[in-house]
Amino acid sequence: MPILFPPKPPLSRACWDGRITPGPPPWDPDEPETEPAPQNSDETLYCEAEASRAVGKEKAARESSETDLEIKDTEKFSTTGQRELYLEACKLMGVVPVSYFLRNMEESYVNLNHHGLGPNGTKAIAIALVSNMSVVTLELADNSLMEEGLLSLVEMLQENYYLQEMNISDNDLGLKGARIISEFLQRNTSSLWKLQLSGNNFRDESAELLCQALSANYQIKTLDLSHNQFSDKGGEHVGQMLALNIGLQSLDLSWNHFYIRGAVALCNGLQANMTLQKLDLSMNGFGNEGATALGEVLRLNNSLGYLDISSNDISNDGVSKISKGLEVNESLKVLKLFLNPMSMDGAVLLILSIKRNPKSKMEEIDISNVLVSEQFLKILDGVCAIHPQLDVIYKSVQGFSAKKALLQWTNPMKLIQSYADQHGITVVDFFRSLNPKGMMTMPVGDFRKAMIQQDKVPVNLYQVRELIKKLDDKRGGVNFSFLKTAKP
To answer: Across the chain, what does the average pLDDT equal?
Structure first.
């Protein structure tokens, strides 16, 4: 397999003469991005740096009569060089340039999902990104990368120190791809900290390779392995990795095939883990036995803040074991139990466990398929009096009248605007008064607690939930800075 970026050979005459000149390519970049008949893909672009310098000199000479402002625009020169490098790489790879990439290669976020790049198109992108200092997040899901395209990306990542997040989901990478990624992860040499590998047909053999690498990798903080084919054996590999890993903070294992043995093994490793903060195990199927193991994790683990175990066939028996762990847990903030066969009795066990734990940091419990009663609401009110940051999302209340529901959903922003108008302040002033630091952002739990405890505008949990949706910054906080320019 030829190496993508070997040491540079002597420069060609074209590089010395600087004849890679700006101008329209011989094709239209805005035409549909389909690949023509492939040319010789073994050629490699060796003179990218020299070509960029030649382009800069030639362009400076042509524009000597223009304004100083244009001449000093070095960022513009850099972008032009990047474009030329990519266009030349596309010629060598025999592919049509992606017009979106040409337009956005100086942006921090580039989304090339579903572009049908193939291995050659991916290689051209990789060549262009070797010296790119702008792109931080690269999306390449569903592009038929194949082994050659993945190798190109891996070699690029060893040279590029600016790319931090990459999505190569849904590329059917399989065992060969897992081996390439595993070897890359073992080097710990790139700046990549977020890697999405969802839907790549990884099985237990792939799990073994990836987990061996991750056991010693400290660079990757966020990893998505959802929608793969890991079974109980894969769960054992993940458990062993979690016991050793000291870097991962977020792990998505949803939509795999972990059952009892796999879930128990995973939880055994999780008990020893001290860095993982977010874990998604939804849509597996480990049942009450797995829930029992998770209850033990919650009793011992003090780093996990988010746990999604939706749709895992957990009944009230399993919920009771989880509740035992919640009675002493001091770190978990979000627990999602949606689509499990639990009833209101299990829901009562959950909220009572929070009531018994004065150090609980729980902010959200999602049991949105459970029908509760008004008696449950009374118990919940008692729990929220102790833990005002708590929000429990359930299906609905038995016998709850439409009139009561309408009262609950009075627009809270209108109430706040009315209060602000009466007191000669702005809505932003009201929200900033809730924050001890007077800042425009605050964590969701702190915001919910402050809204419930303030006595200026009467609102209930439902209205606070609506406010959080409006002000959500997608990072676990609320941001009301945009209200400065919003119309009343």
So the answer is: 84
Q: With beta carbons less than 8 A apart as the criterion, state whether 112 and 139 touch.
A: yes
Residue 437, C-beta contacts closer than 8 angstroms, at least 6 positions apart: none
Question: DSSP labels for 305-364?
Answer: -EEE--SS---HHHHHHHHHHHTT-SS--EEE-TT-S--HHHHHHHHHHHHT-TT----E
Confidence of residue 404 (pLDDT cuts 50, 70, 90): low
- Which residue stretches of 63-115 are H helix? 68-71, 74-93, 99-104
To the question of pTM greater than 0.90 for the whole model, the response is no
Cα–Cα distance between 122 and 35 in angstroms, integer?
Answer: 12
The structure tokens listed for 391 are 């929000």
List, in order, residues 6 or more apart from 427 with CB less than 8 Å away.
413, 416, 417, 420, 480, 483, 486, 488
N-terminal to C-terminal alpha carbon distance within the chain: 63
382: Cα within 13 Å, side-chain hemisphere: 11
Q: How many helices (H) and strands (E) does the chain have?
A: 20, 13
Mean pLDDT of 407-432: 86
State how beta strands 334-336 and 477-479 pair.
Answer: unpaired
**Two tokens at 248?**
């991962």
Q: Is the pLDDT of residue 186 over 90?
A: yes
Q: What is the pLDDT of residues 101-123, one digit of tens each?
A: 999 999 999 999 999 999 999 99
State the Cα–Cα distance between residues 334 and 324, nearest whole angstrom.
Answer: 16
